[in-house]
């Protein structure tokens, strides 16, 4: 259960992303500044964190061993993840973006077989059979239904264009984030811990963030003091704390598709945290009946994921005790 609790804690810190991005948008901040400043501010914090633990040299060594793959998957896992989320926050409240983001639980399961190095030789159907537990897929589809209901409940108050621009970028982000995370876990082969892996991805994605900053400067001028301050909060709470915790949790269960799906499902609690914070901080209206029904399905799906792992954890503990007693 430890990886699940770590995942829940990361969801709490991730929720700051949706609220602070919404605040910056309401104050007139450009979404491209919100996206790029987070990672530019994360870099010195991560360098300090990893340096204090004596682990900077392995990061550079690992990146130098395979720079093309690190650049590619860091772009996918960070840039194609966070830039669309910031763009989507222009068109909807934070809790709605957080709810749509839960599609990552389903998409993460569906793309897992495509990330296997031998899926072409084994065949796609065989890869799906081995990589996607049926129970996890069914539960994830329940979460997907919840997301659809949340969107339906919100659709009446916005135009179809706003709904499209608020939802499609999140779909891109939902595929990019688990793909980048899982692929770089494979590439690094356990040689980097979670803070080191986040630092490596931040370094490799930095050129793209600098280009996005240039676009933001040309389009809207320099960021305001408020946007700089809120971006720093996002960098600390979401960029460093939440990302390191989530990567740590997924790394602990990387060998088990069922447990990995459960950890990724903990991120559904971001919806609850974001909704509570947005109602308190921004006086946002509460969702309607369809929205509440969708939120219940999203959170309920995460709880089912969690309880599905309990027998496996108990069995693992009994086996370990038996082996220890036998020795």
UniProtKB/TrEMBL annotation:
It comes from the Bacteria. InterPro entries: EmrE (IPR032713). Keywords: Membrane, Transmembrane, Transmembrane helix. The keyword Zinc-finger does not apply. Pfam families: EmrE. The chain crosses the membrane at residues 41-60, 72-92, 98-119, 131-152, 158-177, 198-217, 229-247, 292-311. This is Multidrug resistance efflux transporter family protein. It comes from Paenibacillus zeirhizosphaerae.
